Amino acid sequence: MQRLTGRVALITGAASGIGAAIARGLADEGAHVVLTDVDDDPGEEMAASVRAGGGKARFLHHDVADPASWDGVLAQVRAQEGRLDILVNNAGIGDTLPIEDASLAGWDRTIAVDQTSVFLAMKLAAPLLLESGNASVINISSIFGASGGFGASPAYHAAKGAVRLLSKNAAIHWAQSGVRVNSVHPGFIDTPMLDQARGTEMEGLMTGMTPMGRLGRPEEIAAAVAYLASDDASFVTGSELYVDGGFMAA
C-alpha cells in the first residue's frame, strides 16, 4: 500500500536511527523523501540506500538549530521538488547530567537542537506547508516529554515537553488551513544511540520499565509517522501518539 504517492517529505536527523527508518518508511509509502542531517556521509549513504530500494530520495546538509540552514534547505526543496507535504522534525541530541551538574552551555545547545529547531521548522516551512493544502507535520518528542524519566537530562525533558505543547498550539492555529500537526513519543528504541547501554544495568532498567519487556524498533516509530502523514489520519491533529511498549500506561 502506497498512501503517500506524489507527496514530498522532509525528515531531519535522517542519517541514522529513527530518522533513517522514517525516511525509508515514507519512501516505501510512495513519498519523495528529502533526508537532512549534519552527518553528510551517512546521510548520502542512506539516501542512496532508499533509491536502491526503489524509492525517491536525496540528501541535504542541514543544521536544524541554524535559521540560515533552514532557509537554504527549504529554498532547495522549493526549487527542486516544488512542494512540501510532510515535515518530520526528528533531529535531536540528549543530555545526561543531573540539574546540579548541567552547564548553561549544554542546556542552551540541547534546547537549540531539540526545541528551537522545531519552532524554526514550522515557522520557516509555513509557506510551503500552507501551499500544499493537505500537509502533515510530525514532531518527534519522547516519553520524557511527558514524564520525569530518571530525574536526569533536564534540558532534554524541557525541550521534548515544549515540543509536545508547541505541536498542539500549531495544530490549533492551522486547524482550518490544511496543515495537521501531531507529536510522536517514542519509548526506549533500539538504535545506535543505545549501543553503550547494551548488556548493562541500564538496558535492563529500560526493558524492565517497559511493560512489553523489550526495546522498540525504529521501524515501529516509522509506522506511526507514516500513519500520521497519510490521509488515514485526516481527522487527527493536536494529538500525541505514544509508541512506548506501555511505558506511559504503567
From TrEMBL:
rRNA processing recorded as keyword: no
Entry's Gene Ontology molecular function annotations: oxidoreductase activity, acting on the CH-OH group of donors, NAD or NADP as acceptor
Keywords: Oxidoreductase
UniProt-listed SUPFAM superfamilies: NAD(P)-binding Rossmann-fold domains
Alphabetized NCBIfam families for the sequence: PRK07231.1
Family statement: Belongs to the short-chain dehydrogenases/reductases (SDR) family.
Record protein name field: Unannotated protein
